[in-house]
Amino acid sequence: MPSHSKDSEIDLMLQLLSEAYEKKTWHGPNLRQSIRGVSAPGAAWRPASGRHNIWELTLHAAYWKYAVRRRLLGLPQGSFALRGSNFFAMPSGAAPANSSMMSTASSWLPSSIRAIRAW
Fold it and tell me: Each residue of 8-34: b (16+ CB within 10 Å) or e?
């Protein structure tokens, strides 16, 4: 089995995160492209009872980027923008504003991974 340096593993993680959110991908739209232009009613639309809507899925992705960053840096729990974890129920009448949370979470995580190089 070939050995890999810590730097090459970090570079691979950063490349994969970038492809998942912002860079051009081979498989079609990345997450950022997938939510671009989605209206508040479109994000709130639920395909069937018990299924998640775009608002919930976007917030779910942002939450787990936050959770990985928090664990990497040893930060305390409870600093996410909303109370709870994993999936969040969309409050009735709420206007989805998760694209800004997703953007923030997507920029924090790579910077946290880069900090591993200093360890």
Answer: eebeeeeeebeeebbeeeeeeebbeee
